[in-house]
Amino acid sequence: MIRLLALCFVFGSAYSLNCKACTSDNGNNVLCEENASNVTSTECAGEKDHCYVMIQRIKTAGDLLTWNRSCCKVKANAPDCPSNKPLHQENEYYEIWRKFCTEDNCNIMDPRESSDFGGGKVSVQGGSSASTILGSILAVFLAFLVAE
Length: 148
Prior knowledge:
The protein is of the alpha+beta class.
């Protein structure tokens, strides 16, 4: 019985993040660019625990504008969710705007529309509050059973 409850606790508190996933190059996917709340979601796999949106303006390709929305893992030098680079970067070759977050389907924003280009990140640690509450309830229940 205790093993069963322990398994329920482990699997009941597991959580997979869902993020909007799409790409667009120079307006070929208007839904991705302008109405991302209606874009299909994808379940994040592996260690990917953040959603992101990134816009790149490639100056050397006639100001080509590309959009990307999907899952990522925040880490140093990552192209999508770098922990060591500002959210807005610009040089003579390109300009990049990024945002990342941790709630289901939170990556619907336009990363250019922000005043925090100083390097802050829109990121709230944690997963679903439902899984946290369920895990807490199961832990208390398990502790109660073990104590008897």
